[in-house]
Amino acid sequence: MPPRTCALCNDARAILKRPKTGQQICKDCFFWVFETEVHNTIVEAGLFKPGDRVAIGASGGKDSTVLAHVMKTLNDRYDYGLELFLLSIDEGITGYRDDSLETVKRNQQQYDMPLKILSYDEIFGWTMDAIVSQVGKKNNCTFCGVFRRQALDRGAASLHVDHIVTGHNADDIAETVLMNIMRGDIARLGRCTMICTQGEDTIKRSKPFKYAYEKEIVMYAYFKKLDYFSTECIYSPDAYRGHARAFLKDLEAARPSAIIDIIHSGEAFEVREEVKATQKSQQTCKRCGYMSSNDLCKACTLLEGLERGMAQAAITDRARKRLDAEGPAPDNLRTIPFFQNSTTPGTSTPVALETPS
């Protein structure tokens, strides 16, 4: 049987089958169509404007590495007029994050972008290794997710950027929709599918890969021979998200469009006004100034539990009541530095960057 020709250019030999569409296409057409789809997502959502300073959340993994490459490519090709930075968070996971950050440093040289690395240790006084030693592997992802989100905002504020972009792909978003359904957290369904989010006191954050399949991101990285770190986090195998991921992979095997279908279902979901009325209004944390729906933000509550030797206090109601029964936090309790958003003139100090030599 003769080799198939590309379904798009009808000239070159097809060497891959797109998981997203089933088309058999050549390598060059795959690069072009993948980049064009991301460009169309950016344009249709109006994510950027000329002159924006954009921080790319860089972990060294496939998603963020491909995102950095594609953002630089599209910025040059379509003249977005963006100033791009790499922003990495060091969670303090020995044998994982320290190795992946070496990849990020190589990406810095390869893509000629300034790099800022911010660690949990310098913000919260704890590394993930230390947290896991106290809480175990069952709920550690709760701590990491909360701390990472605030660390990204703090890093972006120190860079005076207008926008953070992350490598969350279609699979990630579909998994989040499934997780919210499994937990009965209906109020978050609409928000978790938004391509762009921004709180009153946080920096605009978006997901250019919202409609990009994880398999295609891997194929793009492979055929482009990009330099990325492929080891999974050593603390993630027990994460709740893994159940949603396994379920989604089974759905995708039976129906490849399931990923996009789930995202569209989340987009179409509407919460009744009476349900919205019961949701807590947005405010700022009285202790660290970060956005919160309570007097204390989740990060401050988690940190207080760690500092007082009751790490589960922000995870279970029973543990929280036990912490409250211990009385108010001592005056010498370690706290998170006060959050200052760079969108308010004069509220943050520029930081030193690692720049490509």
**CATH A-level architecture of the largest domain:** 3-Layer(aba) Sandwich
Quaternary arrangement of the chains shown? single chain
- Whole-number total of structural domains: 2
Ranges where pLDDT stays below 50 over 5 or more residues in a row are 343-352
Write down the CATH topology of the largest domain. Rossmann fold
Count of helical stretches = 14
Say which CATH homologous superfamily of the largest domain is assigned: HUPs
Rg over CA atoms, rounded to whole Å, is: 21 Å
Strand arrangement within the widest β-sheet reads: 5-4-3-6-8-7
Structural class: alpha/beta
Helix fraction, binned, reads: 40-55%
What is the first-to-last residue Cα distance? 52 Å
Q: Please report the first level of CATH classification, the CATH class of the largest domain.
A: Alpha Beta
